[in-house]
Amino acid sequence: MIDIKSVYEKFQSHPDFKISRWISLEEAKILQTYAKDFPLCFESGTANGFSSYAMGLVMAENSIIHSYDPFERVKIWEFLPKLNLSINFYKKKFKESKALVETKIAPSIFFIDGGHSRSEVTEDWDSIKNFLTKNDLVIFHDVVGESGVHRFW
Fold first, then answer.
1. Torsion sign, CA atoms 41, 47, 53, 58
2. Which DSSP string do the residues of 63-132 spell out, in sequence order?
3. Which residues contact 109 (CB under 8 A, 6 or more apart)?
4. Distance of CA 103 to CAs 56, 85, 153, Å?
5. Are 144 and 150 in contact (CB under 8 A)?
6. If you placed Cys at 45, which of 81, 113, 136, 151 could pair as Cys (CB 3.0 to 4.6 Å)?
7. What tens digit of pLDDT does each residue of 15-35 get?
8. What are phi and psi of 75, to 5 degrees?
9. For residue 54, pLDDT beyond 80
10. With the C-alpha atoms ordered 39, 56, 72, 143, is the resulting torsion angle positive or negative?
């Protein structure tokens, strides 16, 4: 079985990846703690796909991850064993996920780690807030510090 630490270490010195853009190994483990309980995930801010893959390692077979980022970057899952779930990457802003979020039929985890200005975080939140149910979970990354995420929070 693949563990998230080995994935993180494998890509630390890979020339196609900017690790500083990723969530930390500790944050990945926390994210996995929550993601394992959900069959559906919506992610804002794919970067190289580390957080998507981290969640995918613990989510149930046939789960679905919808990951949004307006920038095209190499994804780590292109170099790793295929998981028994779907990771769907969309090269667009998270606000364009509205149609998918409206039709969600299962409890979902939302991981907001896209743009870090207050307006970008607000835009991501506004895209999902009216479709949340009591069984959904929203996680915002980078709420500590002086970022726009912190000011939104």
1. negative
2. -EEEEE-SS----GGGSSPPPSSEEEEESS-GGGGHHHHHT--S-EEEEE-S--SHHHHHHHHHHHGGG-
3. 34, 35, 37, 38, 40, 41, 42, 55, 136, 137, 138, 139
4. 21, 19, 27
5. yes
6. 113
7. 888 888 889 999 999 999 999
8. -105, 140
9. yes
10. positive
Q: pLDDT, tens digit, for every residue of 65-110?
A: 999 999 999 999 999 999 999 999 999 998 888 778 878 889 999 9
Q: What is the pLDDT of residue 44?
A: 94
CA 90 distance to own-chain centroid = 12
| pLDDT of the residue at 18 | 83
**Pick from 37, 55, 57: nearest CA to 45:** 55
Place of tokens 């990354």: 141
Using the structure block, give the residue that is written with the tokens 């559906």. 40
Burial of 12 (0-12, 13-18, 19+ CB in 10 A): exposed
Structure tokens at 84: 């028994």
Structure confidence at residue 67 (pLDDT): 94
- CA trace torsion 123, 126, 128, 134 (10° rounding): 140
